[in-house]
Amino acid sequence: MQLDRLRVTRHSIPLPSPVSDSTHGTIRTFSLVTVRAEAGSSLEGLGYTYTVGESAASSIHSLIEDDLAPLLAGRDPRCTEEAWRLMWRATHYAGRGGPASFAISAVDMALWDLKAKALGEPLWRLLGGNSPRVEAYASGIDLDQTPQELADRTRARMAAGFRAFKMKIGRDRLSEDVERVSAVREVIGPDVPLMVDANMKWTVAEALRASRALAAFDPLWLEEPIEPGDIEGHIRIQREGPVPVAAGENLHTISEFTAMISGGAVAYPQPDVTNCGGITAWLKVAHLAEAHGLPVTTHGAHDVHVALLAAVPNASFLEIHGFGLDDFVRRPLSISDGAATASDRPGHGVEFDWELLRAYQVDR
Ligand SMILES: [Mg+2]
Q1: What are the pLDDT digits (tens) for 326-348?
Q2: Which residues surround ligand 1, an ion (CB under 5 A)?
Q3: Residues 11, 166, 252, 299: which is the catalytic one?
Q4: For residue 23, what are the CA distances in angstroms to 121, 227, 288?
Q5: pLDDT digits over 28-71, tens only?
Q6: Rounded to whole angstroms, what are the CA distances from 336 to 135, 136, 308, 356?
Q7: Which residue in 11, 61, 115, 168 is the catalytic one?
Q8: For domain 5-120+352-358, which CATH number applies: 2.60.40.1180, 3.40.50.300, 3.30.390.10, 3.40.50.150?
Q9: Which pTM does this prediction carry?
Q10: From the CA of 249, how far away is ligand 1's center (Å)?
Q11: Annotated catalytic, 168?
Q12: CATH class (in words) of the domain with range 125-341
């Protein structure tokens, strides 16, 4: 088998309504960069990555088209480790993270999809999974919502089948966060998992103060309390605060995850397959977590992550993310009794409706 072509497109996807968090403020669109890896006349693998707003999307597009596509042309797309090593080395000097990691992620995902399709296996089974069912949670990008709005939306999501929830924190005053978390805990009762996400808002001291104040509402984890590169700070919040720390959506290399996990800086590693280096890198992070006795969870891209969590023994919850592609994928993920089920079709199972996406394409 040889790779004939990588086709890249870029899209600006409007959100159904604006959302907000403590880092990005109000978010109205996200960028989607897609890769189609073609081998022969009938086999095509799909990969994709995304960014907030328009940020870096054209750079990621160019990196794939100008650097990665010529590098991999004519190679066997099933040799994913070799392809990954070539992409990593080719982008090394200006890469090791940033847009290069997003570009490698999209291409690597497309190669794995192609390989699984060539073998006629669903990705989760090819990777060694035992069951396609994965516990999931409803994730809110909701820092602007009032306690009443949060309570109403949580009730609606419970009615839709969710049994675990995450909300944003990081308002200007800690008392507002306490009031908002209290409102959601009140609705879901004492035993339903509730996670909170600060999107890097705080200093270590502020994070510890918040961790202690919110512990009364028993959050399963406190996500991204501080800047992602401050490993010592994460270790302090883990050791001195009562709430376990989650982080990973802003770690874009395996070595960053190694430092976090081996340093005891994180209780719930959250690699995102669309920015940590693709499926090849995501699996290494998941296994690294397992070797340290930790679960692995995910960030964003739930349509693909469901297949990865279904493949590993240390899976924690799948995030059902606000940047959903439900309107653009055939067979969107459904939730029943708190769980999602990975596709039984060959490959990762995600298939875009290209006609619908074309209206939002920005690289024509
Ligand atoms: Mg987050």
Answers
A1: 999 999 999 999 999 999 999 99
A2: 197, 223
A3: 299
A4: 40, 11, 29
A5: 999 999 999 999 888 999 999 999 999 999 999 999 999 999 99
A6: 10, 9, 19, 27
A7: 168
A8: 3.30.390.10
A9: 0.97
A10: 7
A11: yes
A12: alpha beta
